[in-house]
């Protein structure tokens, strides 16, 4: 009698019991998974299904894989409706202003009591869901999503086509020195779907500490630009005492987002028109080296002029003679 293979599928925080025959192939498995999850076979990435250390093709019989009973199979993949939603820009995005000269406004508002009070309120009321434990003695890297890691305006069949080149290599290198936080001026569902679509939420070589959404931002008023929503790093510093202006850096394609912490922000070149630029954009690759040099050689990130990061030449530390 032909053997039955019982598999426990792990996907999106849930488990599903899947049964197939040894004569069924990998494509049959994917079709069965679709019945349970709704994820189409071409969207599925079966992470730990191997044949002699390699990913089996869809014609491979399941009997050849010699799977143990209740083998736990991990899958990455997105539902069609989630892909559509993640590739459709939300309607509540703040209006973008010309921020070429926004540093003129920074000194005027950075320490105003009314805004410090707003930060204190966020520290008290905003709940952060820790995804992965913070590690001792690590620096802090805060990253935007849209136009920083992902071209959210262009259309494409897959998230990989809109992902900024070298994203996973960049995050892997950064993770050696930094706890990584994602902060987007959108809603939490948007962030979660984007990270799932890009494979950031479950990558084996790095982990994201937590996400922050638009509710963690505050509004400020400047004489030149009026009211703007911004990302004050003080919200994080108030909740996690190990982080401060000395060991924190934020990447964003819009300078106004770090107007409350101008010395800790780096305006990254925006990644747009992915279909034209993904073959020549190496911004993240070069910034990987900058982050490494910064972590190894700077005791105070706020003392470094991040606007000139491309020219940064770290000085070797020498012990002072008494």
TrEMBL record:
Residues 5-76 form the Ubiquitin-like domain. One of its GO terms (molecular function) is metal ion binding. It is found in: Nucleus. It catalyses: O-phospho-L-threonyl-[protein] + H2O = L-threonyl-[protein] + phosphate; O-phospho-L-seryl-[protein] + H2O = L-seryl-[protein] + phosphate. Residues 134-294 form the FCP1 homology domain. Keywords: Coiled coil, Hydrolase, Magnesium, Metal-binding, Nucleus, Protein phosphatase. It is an enzyme of class 3 (hydrolase). Its cofactor is Mg(2+). Its EC number is 3.1.3.16. It comes from the Eukaryota. InterPro entries: FCP1_dom (IPR004274), HAD-like_sf (IPR036412), HAD-SF_hydro_IIID (IPR011943), HAD_sf (IPR023214), Ubiquitin-like_dom (IPR000626), Ubiquitin-like_domsf (IPR029071), UBLCP1 (IPR051658). Pfam families: NIF, ubiquitin. Gene3D superfamilies: HAD superfamily/HAD-like, Phosphatidylinositol 3-kinase Catalytic Subunit, Chain A, domain 1. Residues 102-129 form a coiled coil. GO terms for biological process: regulation of proteasome assembly. GO terms for cellular component: nucleus. The keyword Cell inner membrane does not apply. NCBIfam families: HAD_IIID1. This is Ubiquitin-like domain-containing CTD phosphatase 1. It comes from Rhamnusium bicolor.
């Amino acid at each position: 009698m032909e053997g039955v293979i019982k598999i426990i599928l792990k996907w999106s925080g849930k488990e599903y019991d899947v049964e197939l025959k040894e004569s069924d192939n990998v494509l049959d498995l994917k079709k069965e998974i679709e019945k349970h999850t709704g994820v189409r076979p071409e969207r599925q990435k079966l992470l730990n299904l191997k044949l002699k250390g390699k990913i089996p093709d869809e014609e491979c019989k399941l009997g050849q894989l010699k799977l143990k009973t209740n083998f736990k199979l991990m899958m990455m993949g997105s539902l069609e409706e989630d892909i559509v939603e993640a590739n459709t820009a939300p309607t509540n995005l703040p209006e973008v202003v010309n921020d070429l000269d926004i540093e003129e406004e920074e000194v005027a508002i950075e320490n105003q009591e009314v805004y410090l009070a707003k930060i204190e309120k966020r520290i008290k009321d905003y709940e952060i869901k820790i995804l992965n434990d913070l590690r001792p003695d690590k620096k802090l890297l805060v990253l935007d999503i849209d136009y920083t890691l992902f071209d959210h305006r262009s259309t494409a069949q897959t998230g990989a086509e809109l992902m900024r080149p070298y994203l996973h290599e960049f995050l892997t290198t950064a993770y050696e020195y930094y706890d990584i936080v994602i902060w987007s001026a959108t809603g939490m569902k948007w962030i979660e779907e984007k990270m799932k679509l890009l494979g950031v939420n479950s990558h084996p070589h790095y982990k994201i500490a937590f996400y922050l959404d638009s509710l963690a931002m505050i509004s400020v008023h400047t004489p030149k630009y009026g009211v703007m929503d911004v990302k004050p790093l003080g919200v994080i510093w108030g909740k996690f005492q190990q982080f401060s202006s000395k060991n924190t850096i934020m990447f964003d394609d819009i300078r106004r987002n770090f107007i409350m912490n101008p010395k800790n922000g780096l305006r990254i070149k925006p990644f747009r028109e992915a279909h034209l630029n993904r073959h020549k954009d190496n911004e993240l690759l070069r910034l990987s080296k900058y982050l490494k040099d910064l972590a190894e050689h700077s005791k105070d990130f706020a003392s470094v002029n991040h606007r000139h990061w491309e020219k940064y030449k770290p000085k070797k530390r020498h012990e002072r003679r008494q």
